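This week, think about what follows.
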Amino acid sequence: MTDHNSSAGGVDGDRTSGEQGRSAAGWPAGAQQQPQSPQAAAPYGYADNPPVPPQQSSDAVRAQVAAAWVRSARPGPVPPGEAAVPVLPPQVSQASAASKKDQRKAAQEAKRAERKAAYEQKKAEREGRKKGRGGAPAAPAQAVAAPSGADARPAGSSVPTASAGAAAGSAAVSGSQARAAGGAGFDVPRPGGRLPAQGRRTHVAVRAALLITTCAFALGSCGVAGLVVGKSSVAVGNADLSAKDVERYRLSEFPITAAATFAEEYVTLCMTYSPQNADKRRDALTRYASSGVDRDCGMTGQGTQSVRQAKWDGTVEELPEFGANGRYLGIQVKLSTGRITTLSVPVYVKDPATGSGLRIAGNVGEMPLAARGSAPAVKQDEEVVDQTLSNQLKGQVLPGFFKAWGASDTTGLTRFTTPDASQSATTGLAGALASPEVQEVVALAPEGSEPNATITYGQGQAVQARVTVVWGGAAAAAPAKGTPPPTTSVKRSYRLTLVNTAQGWFIKDVRGGVLDPTGGRADAGATASAAPVPEENPPAAGGEPAPGASPAPKTP
């Protein structure tokens, strides 16, 4: 038997020239296997605290070497000069303190270091492709430098080591660092470390650009908002109306209401007189007028006259001598004689802002009444009247409704009105009128209906109707049993909204007044002053009518 710990000196003599100086297991002659330096095999970032490779027992190593030698042995008989068993490395004593738990922990640390080295290499290659600062990344280093004092092993040696993967990863990272130092690659920062100088500058520039852009946008938004608010404020403050609008809506600084009330009081005193109260009337007028105004307001002191009503008619004329402090106001007066006239009164206001300092600044002048206009004709060409519905409403629905409505009969109104009827339809006249007679009903068909065609109505459809009712008189004046009805009667017109339901037609709303489709004016060719007015005041002394009174009509 051959001692596996001996050098088996006779074996080297029969080896080929390429195998001399080595043992059968591939170890250099006279040299023992040296453990690999942790510093050389440690990946980047673990130089200070390298992972501990797993420790294997010497028996396991010797068994692996023997198995490798058997696999690589040449077939056939063993030459006489060679040993049948390869020379094994000397048995290395293992620390007795090492346990299986420590070995598993060391193996896990080695695998973790190997994975981290592979991740760092892939990350470096990915960053290189993104930045395009160099060509394809170089292949990882194929070999790791042996510890100092040990000979380089040939490529064919197959001695396993526990830290082979970790050494390969460390070599890859070292190669990447070497390429970055040579200018062909780039620097990979240590985990948690800073970026390279150029990367930091780019990052800071991007952040500064974003900050400046945000500030500029905020300032621009504030500026635009300020311009909009300022422009709107200026526009509201400088609103300009035309002279026509000012005159139409009476938008002036002159206090029209206060001046009109003051002028109405003055005209009431001016147009009311009697000889018995001449002195009191004169003293009252002086409290309104200026010093040069006629203290009797044009009256000669003969006759008697009083005012029933004096109202401002809405006419305003500028007083050029006083500018914004004066106006001519038109006051319409209805006298006790029945005559209606208009007086133009000059009014001065000392302070237009407060309406104080009012004074009649001149004598009044009597003017004709304001001209009346004519009403336009109402277009009813497109209206379609449903005569069938009109007759039905006139005979069946409206007589009972107006009887209950005139008397405000709540119970009766519920039979003719809808649940959502208006207040005017459910309130009534509270007995002011009674004995209604429906004289005329005009029910309008829905839009789009054809004349002289049969019209049908759906559930909930509403129609409009114009109704004329003749009331027999007040409910209090209703005749007793066996007495003739009252002779007085009034005719009134209404606009009704009716709704079709499953039970029939019901009233939803009632409104008063109906337009005259003819238009024009009834007094065409006549003037307002031509109508005779009854004489109410007795003639003054001497048989002459009182001043300002209309003459009594002559009997033909």
